[in-house]
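Support reply, case 0932

Customer input (verbatim):
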Amino acid sequence: MHEVSLKLVPRTVNGKKVAGLRKSGLVPSVIYGHGEPLLTESPLVETTKAVHEAGKHTPVHLVVDGKKRLAMIKSVDIHPVRHHVRHVAFHAIKQNEIITAEVPIVLVGEGESAAERAGLVVLQAIETIEIKAKPGDLPESLELSILDLTTTDDKLTVADLKLPEGVEFADQDQDTELVIANVYEPSALAAKNDAIGGDAVDESEVEAENGEDTPQDAQGEENRPGGKDQKEPKQSNVDANK
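Our regenerated output:
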């Protein structure tokens, strides 16, 4: 697994005053878990690189005041217009903990399947899935070959995913018949798109932080962890199974 690292420094500025940090090229962040939340900051370029490389599925090796911490990215606030990183919430983890992460499903062989060579279209219905493992065992993605898809009767389901050793589905009752990829006639796919009026936009992905230390898109999940009345976060995207 590719190691993602980021150097942070503690910060004393919070609330609406973090606007000044951003103007100076710094990104405010917070680390939850294993004690009280720690307010931190880091340069925009390095932070953006770490966010893009790690996503919510790869552990990040943090260095804060010379001390090393392992963490997962819990949430990221992106500016709705400029599209740069405005805030990052990390959740501290330990190497021996079983944690939950959402990893991407990557279709392998796109453009080379028998179905596509016959003029059909392979459409991915599910792009991510939650798994659990120790940090060192977490895969960056789960690959699924579409080369054997031939007709519109063919499909790929969760049951077709091959999990690496030490990795399990986060949901013990995971529906293995859930369809990941379907094969369509181009005309049928066009008719389907017309019927639903195109793709919907998830507005929660572009919610602004408005200067708070906890991004708005994470507040619903965490019940505002690290606020004035609550020091310990409620785990959601990254859970430790003791």
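We compared this against your earlier run and they match. Two observations from our side: Residues 200-212, 214-242 have pLDDT under 50 and may be disordered. DSSP finds five helices and 13 strands in the chain. Please reopen the case if you see a mismatch on your end.
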